[in-house]
Specification:
Length: about 775
Amino acid sequence: MQQKREQPLRLRELIKEVRACKTAAEERAVVSQEASEIRDSFRDENYKFRHRSVAKLLFIQMMGYPTNFGQVECLKLIASTNFTEKRVGYLGLTQLLNEKDDVLVMVTNSMQIDMNNSNTRISGIALTALANIATGEMCRDLSKDVCRLMSHSNSYIRKKAAMAGCRVVRKCPDMIEEIAEEVPKLLQDRSHVVVMNGVNLLLEILKIESSAKQGFEQYLELLVRALKNLLHTVHSPEHSIGGVIDPFLQVSLLKLLGQLGVGKNNEELADCLAQVATNTESTKNPGNSVLYECVRTILDIEGTSGLKVLATNIMGRFLMNRDNNLRYVALNSLLKFVKFDQIAVQRHKQTILECLKDIDITIRKKALELTYSIINESNVTQIVQEMINFLIESEAEFKEALVTKICLAVEMHSPSRVWQIDTIIRVLTLAGVYVPEEVVASTAHIISDSSELHSYSVHKLFRALRDNKDQQGLVLLSIWAIGEFGNFLLTSSQDGDLEYEAVSGDQILSSLSEVVKNGDQTLKEYTLTALVKLSVRLPEMSEAIKKLLEKEKASINVELQQRSCEYLQLLESNWSQVRKPLLENIPPYKKAVEKPQLTEIKSQPALKKEHNLLDLDLIFDSNTQENPSQTAPPTESLIDIFESNTDRFSEFEEAKPSETFDLVAFEDEEIKVSFSCSKPSEPKTTFIQAVSTNKTSAAISNFKLSVAVQKHLTLSLSNATSNYVNPGESTRQDMNITNTQQGQKPIVLRLKIDYTLGSNKSKMTTVDSFPKDF
């Protein structure tokens, strides 16, 4: 146990002792002994160095140790007539107490006396304490004094009173009207700091009660005049920072003008903003902060076209700055300007595209978002080509977002189907593993619906497949195309100056054989289906096709084994009459659109089956139904693979909900997952649309929603429409749940939400609030 010190330590000595501690235990021992001695000193009512003990408590509190025993001592110091003691007492009051402490009520009277003290230093520290820690009751009791002090002869007190006024309106919103009456005096004050605190007080009032905006529009002229005075009046050097006159006050004024000037066609305001935009020095940060706030104000008030051009030019200069902070705010601002004037933003197209090469991933993602927003029918070919060039050299983290934007741009603004197919194949060749399944499906729609492009498309895809077998999306689309239009490969194809030579049947089967040998299960399944479809397109290759199918009869995978056996049976002579109509090309999709949206493709069931969008078994279903007169009675083994497409996918296409309800499955400060549930005609089936919303101000990447169910439930879950979610935006997933014990056991889901927001995050929750009849 340490001995009691002969003389109490001064604050400086205590800090030295703490810094000299080599371990946390030594530090705790020093602090414990000092706290004990401070307690002892407080017991002596005549102790003359009480303020030193409280000052040491402030240091101890900053280190995270408890100091509640010193709260009453702060009140004693505040009641002292000595300024040094009073100052330490108020400092202790703001740091050692909070507004929930009952002790705080006891200081109201002392604070009121000090606020009205003739000594401005005492009055100032009392107002500062009120602005930092006063409760609602204290604010109500002292509000009249605060209002009166806003007209004090000393600018220092007026400044402090305005700060205290912010606390009063925050704690007592019903007193806004009383406090607001003093604002015009503050806005016309000669002191810069008083004007700035008056502006901040008005901003605080508008934040608390936005409906008060109409009453404050009368101050618009005062604010414009105050800003003009800053621009044209000669001020003392103390107000100049980096060659800009009081940038803090200018920023505050511009922020308030942005709120009060909305919808006002005020020529004086427009002229003032134009002067700020053209005359402010932009070589240093103070000037850049003023310019950025000026741009925000122009955006807020929806200024004239001339002001908007000025604003976009300012942001264009920011884009060329080496400071990443400036570049980011410029990209963010231009994203807002696109809504008003896309042409003005497009003048900076090249600079925006250069930002896609930036080292900083946040700059690249924001530049990608802006690049996508300026794409239209006239520039889509040029910009998409630039984006594809960046795709070649970008890293995996950025490729996914870049691919998604390219595909969206291609589908939204494609000048022709040939260009669209060429571009998607190029993207699949470079980054097929990152291409969303919806894009592969929509490309299949376009090819299928364009008979004039069948030959060209299958030739192009066949060549791409030979050189890029590691790109899943490309391989998938190529296999589908070969299965559908492989007969076109036997003849040459020409498109303009480009000519594709004919391909032999052996070459076709060689490429498919390699996929069967090296591909994953999904690709093997599709390849087997493509082979059986080629048997009617390339009848001379039937025997070779049978040999390839024979190899999978002994597969350890049940699905592959079943397909090979059933397809081999289909190739027997007793099926010759039904084989051709059964394996016809997919008919054009009835609901296919010229430019399908990625978010809409999931609603088209013809390409959807459990884990993949291009299950070619469904081709058989539609063909069988369209040619009933040509179809022979199938055996039991074939019924399973040729079952009705309508029966299998009616829950996605024809679900007409007789009952619906919504629920929030999960919500915190970052993510909200909402379920929109409906009951189709089948009582055991529930259709759920899950919408996951980004509640933060930053983009979320790598988003994934996983769902686990109990044994009595079966689940079919689609992929998310996007795993990159911008602030305030959402991603969607559809799921079908079949409750085999409907009415006996309820639906209970276990959700796992994974995403990246600064760091990798994972959250889990159980959803058990479904009604029993669901």
